[in-house]
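pinging the channel bc i need a second pair of eyes. not urgent but kinda urgent?? the chain im working w is below, pasted from the shared doc
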Amino acid sequence: MKALASLITLTLLTVAAYSQNTINNYKYVLMPERFDFSKMDNQYGLNTTAKSLLEQKGFTVVWVNGELPPAVASNKCNALRAEMTQHNTIFTTGLTLLLKDCQGNVVFKSKEGKSREKEFETAYAEALRNSFASLNETPYKYDSSAVQQTAIPLVATQQVPAQQTPAAQTGTTPAATTTPPVTPAAETKITGTLYAQPLPNGYQLIDTTPKKVLTLLKTSVDDYYIADASNGIVFKKNNEWFFEYYKDGKLVSQKLEIKF
């Protein structure tokens, strides 16, 4: 078998947040139990009402602190986050709906919904529903072919060439070669927050440089990855991520901070 040449892809793609500026790219919306201006969870029923209105639009809405669908649990960038801002005056109550991506970029901003009702509960309920008027006028159909990305540059990846087949199979005698001594790999200390960028068969973890630190290859077990080129594994235990590998016959375990 012929040796495969080393292929180095030097494609640097800066995937900007505005490339995800359509609600059609998203199936899921994360709903908080309390909006920033509220004093208690679901005050005046705003959060449950907003959840219901988004579901009527066609979104699948889940609570931020509830059980997440696998697609969202593995990558928060597959969901929008609902927020509501208020702008009250002496005579009016005003609310604006925001749908943001995982980087905090505004994908959709509604027109301000207003109410002149004096009773708080009635005023907030009316302002909320009025804020959804512009969303209801916006066409929405989920595009399942859309791939969610983060706004972090992709770094170059390298394909390792396959090992050469011994020349004896071709009927020739291979030339003698001198094999350089193998130097044991130094223990790799990984610190700081790593950002997971989706790949067809897993993720690549990059730091804030940005520089690729590890490539994670999917397995048949959830939250369990093969760490490419390191002969190690990355897995989730007690809601924390760990990177483990052997060095000089001893198990090395490092805790990682990964943002999906």
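so The chain is about 15% helix and 30% strand. and Residues 1-20, 149-162, 165-169, 182-186 have pLDDT under 50 and may be disordered. — does that match what u expected or am i reading it wrong
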